[in-house]
Structures are given as structure tokens and as C-alpha cells.
Specification:
Elements (H helix, E strand, L loop, with lengths): L1 E6 L2 E5 L4 E2 L11 E7 L2 H6 L12 E12 L5 E4 L5 E15 L1 E2 L2 E2 L2 E2 L4 E2 L6 E13 L3 E8 L5 E2 L1 E4 L9 E7 L6 E6 L4 E3 L3 E2 L2 E11 L2 E11 L10 E4 L3 E3 L1 H8 L3
Parallel strand pairs: 15-22
Antiparallel strand pairs: 1-2, 2-7, 3-6, 4-5, 5-6, 5-13, 7-12, 8-11, 8-13, 9-10, 14-19, 15-18, 16-17, 16-20, 17-18, 20-21, 21-23
Length: 256
């Protein structure tokens, strides 16, 4: 066994015979580890990682983790399905013991939602500041869980006509969880619409757009209630972004 240290908050333990080549043969040699750890809500926005499962529900999320292995010649390496590896992450206020969620990759295209693993290999356990993850495949993982909520409502954001799905991203960021939810464009309604979200919650709306060489942003604090906007089946919010700089956008996202 040996440990690969990715950064000062995450390390990877690779047991013997846990890594294979594309032919299924066990690999022995140098490994290049490509990794990413998303903990802050701002980093999830920058990496386009929304906390939404395949049934359109909001997830409670502690962190999203990406792992990818290659040999020195850039050939992809894999985890043997019966020899899972361990990932150790240093986080604050961790309290979790449940299966992991993952992003399905088909023909190198990544799903936009998280699917729940239902096996004994892919799990996340943590208490206090230590999170331990076991996985038997590479890619994106979410250390979260499906939230149980009874009453929900949707929100929609209406923007000026020059803000489209080709140049604009819209997010709803809950105040009381580590999750981030992307609002999806509705071409018919010319709006960005959310999945079902728990009511009686405070959220921050974030609109980011790049048009030509200029950047724009708009933010607004909202409260999601069970009430809908008259004439609609959801809460409708009208926003007009203002011109800014990329540096200002990144600085703001770091505050989320």
C-alpha cells in the first residue's frame, strides 16, 4: 500500500492491485493523480457542479471530489471494481455515514445530475473534521445525501432579452447548506427555472454572464415561501445584471 498526497486537505490510499490498465491488467508503476476538491459554494459555481440528483431534488452536500489517474504516458488508469481505494479529506463539521453520489460518464460526456450508488464499495463516513471515502471508479463524487422535505416550490428568474442560455448562468445558493443549485433555461418562457426547492428557506440568487468581452453579475437575497407569483406556478424574480470584472465575480463567489 502507498499514499498519494494530492494537497494539504486530501490524500489517497491505493492498496496493492487496486489500479488497472484499460485491458484490466493490474498496473504497477508511477501514477499521475489528477484531483479536485470542491467544498465552498463559490468553487461549486465556478466548476458548474450543482447539487441536484436524477429525480430533480436538492442534495445536502459536504463536498464534491474528482479523481482521475493516468500513467506517465497519459494513458487512463482505472480502479479495480473489487479493490476500492480510500480518500481522506480534512473538513469542518463533518457528520455523514451513507452511500456516495456520482456523476455518470458516457462517451466522455458527464451527466448534469448526481446518481446514488447502491453498493458496499462506494461510501462516505465522517465525524468531526475527518471524512473517509471509499470508491471503486474514478470521476466525480458528491459526499452528500438526499434531503427529506415535505413542501416545495419553484423559482424562476427573468432577465433582459440579451441574457440567454448561451452566455448566462443562474444559481440559487441556500443559506443553510453547502449546496448550490443551477437554474435551467426555459426557451419557451425565456426564463431560468429551478428544480423543486424546500420552502421557508433563505437563498441568494446569483446571475453571471459574459457578453463579448464584458462580464455582468446580479445577486439578490430571496425567501422561498409556498406562495407563487400571480399568473405563474412558481415564484418569479426579475433581475437586471450590472457590468463588472471577472476578478470581482471571483471575489464575490469566495464569500458564499
Amino acid at each position: 500500500q502507498y499514499v498519494s498526497v494530492c494537497n494539504n486537505t486530501m490524500s489517497v490510499l491505493l492498496p496493492q492491485n487496486s489500479i488497472t490498465t484499460g485491458t484490466g491488467a493490474f498496473y504497477h508503476g508511477n501514477i499521475i493523480v489528477k484531483s479536485k476538491l470542491l467544498v465552498s459554494k463559490g468553487s461549486c459555481v465556478l466548476s458548474l457542479k450543482t447539487a441536484e440528483n436524477t429525480t430533480g431534488q436538492l442534495l445536502g452536500s459536504y463536498a464534491s471530489i474528482y479523481l482521475f489517474f493516468t500513467d506517465p504516458n497519459n494513458n487512463e488508469l482505472y480502479i479495480d471494481s473489487t479493490h476500492p481505494i480510500s480518500v481522506f479529506v480534512h473538513l469542518e463539521n463533518t457528520n455523514i455515514n451513507n452511500p456516495l453520489l456520482y456523476r455518470e460518464r458516457t462517451n466522455n460526456l458527464l451527466s448534469n445530475t448526481w446518481s446514488l450508488y447502491n453498493d458496499n464499495y462506494n461510501t462516505a463516513t465522517g465525524q468531526g473534521e475527518n471524512l473517509t471515502i471509499t470508491i471503486n471508479r474514478t470521476g466525480w463524487y458528491n459526499c452528500g445525501k438526499n434531503l427529506n422535505y415535505i413542501q416545495t416550490n419553484k423559482i424562476a428568474v427573468s432577465l433582459p432579452a440579451n441574457y440567454t442560455n448561451a452566455n448566462t448562468l443562474v444559481y440559487a445558493v441556500p443559506n443553510n447548506s453547502g449546496s448550490v443549485v443551477q437554474l435551467h433555461p426555459s426557451i419557451t418562457d425565456r426564463q431560468f427555472q429551478s428544480i423543486e426547492l424546500p420552502v421557508q428557506g433563505n437563498y441568494k440568487l446569483v446571475v453571471i454572464s459574459k457578453q463579448a468581452n464584458s462580464y455582468f453579475i446580479s445577486t439578490q437575497d430571496i425567501f422561498i415561501s409556498s406562495q407563487t407569483t400571480q399568473g405563474y406556478q412558481y415564484q418569479l424574480i426579475n433581475l437586471t445584471p450590472q457590468i463588472t470584472t471577472l476578478a470581482n465575480i471571483k471575489s464575490f463567489l469566495n464569500t458564499l
